[in-house]
Amino acid sequence: MKISLEFKKWLASSVIALALVLVAINSTQVYAQNGIESVRLWSAPSSTRVVFDLKDKPDYSFFSLRSPNRLVIDFNNSSSEINFKNLTQRDHRVKKVRASTPKNKASKRIVLELESTYKLVVFPLAPTGQYGHRLVVELHDTVTAKQTVKSKTVEENRDVVVAIVAGHGGDDPGSIGYNGSYEKHVTLAIAKKLAAQLNAHSGMKAVLIRTGDYFVRHERKPRMARKHKADLLISIHADAFTSSQPNGASVLVQSARRANSEFTKVIANREKESQLLGGAGEIIKNTQDDNLAVILADMTKEFTTQSSYVFATKALKELKKVTKLHKKKPVGLSLAVLTAQDIPSVLIETGFISNPKDEKNLNNPTHQKKLAVAITNAILNYFNQYPPKGSLLASKNVPVHKVANGESLSLIAQRYNVSLSALKKENGLKSNIIHVGQKLTIPK
Hints:
It contains 12 helices and 17 strands. The protein is of the alpha/beta class. The protein has 3 domains: 34-141, Sandwich (Immunoglobulin-like); 158-385, Zn-dependent exopeptidases (Aminopeptidase); 400-441, LysM domain (Membrane-bound Lytic Murein Transglycosylase D, Chain A, Roll), CATH 3.10.350. Helix 3 links the parallel strand 10 (160-166) and strand 11 (204-208). Keywords: Cell wall biogenesis/degradation, Hydrolase. This is N-acetylmuramoyl-L-alanine amidase.
């Protein structure tokens, strides 16, 4: 059968047309491969976090606009049928979230109408726990010059300040218990009870780093503690394991390796980071002698590391009275919340939320109070022995010090704000060697 030239042309054009249709259909499928499944908003005292839950890894771009203030986010190759109407009812930074028309029809454009200008942080998060792919938007209040001014004079008879961090929060629930309870709720309940216990004692002041159900980034926690001039940082958590058997409380301190790593960073940028090195910060910042800078900074790090360990030991002693211990000695781990070079810091695992009995106790207000009282007793014991300079406790007469495990003579001299030579002279010491249980008279 002979096929005419016209039919061949028609057949070729039909095949091409069909191919173009198939390409178009396939392209539509590709462009719509991702989708925004839900949006969550969390308000904190100094920031707001907006979380977009996505079907797949986000491919995005964003830009800011002024007059009025807006943040525009384009989710490439994405679609969404979400209603944003009631999302911002309780937030004072984001006035409205709405969809807009993108340049690329295959994309989804979301606009956040803002009350003011904020420090902006946008980053993706990989799937973890109960969450899939996410895009996180954080709006942080900007700090004015007036807010950054701090008094350089040492306050006399001041309160001892303890910063309390309730672990997790907001879109980060932490570990989920055997019966479904969230770590973030347990930690906040215990933190609030601990703050109440501390504030009931004269000369003590508790500062809650997280006061509600929102997330505070790890690197901000030590900064917030420093802003409040904290003498101690305590992070409250509840442990978990893949099986339900492990139980009991633990106290964690920063590992020596992580402490040295953070110390190296600070020294390398000492002009910028001098505020992280306590009272010697200005000398460390301005000295031209690199060796002197390292010696002074290392003394600060050593003081903080040893102080953290000493307090952790006291905390375990008190916790043992109200709950079972999972670890009887302080555990060293690399933890972002404990990176302060100038603030003794510990993380207290109050029990295993993955253990049915521990979970029940951790959600029990009576047990929560027992834990708070035990930690408070450890704090009082610690600061009665080592009162911070300028505090009401330091104004009391503390003539004799009993040497505890892990203490050095230089550490004791630094804690009581006396020189090493004066301490040695007062006690007739010819060397720096001291023994556990030895009593030292503290010179005035």
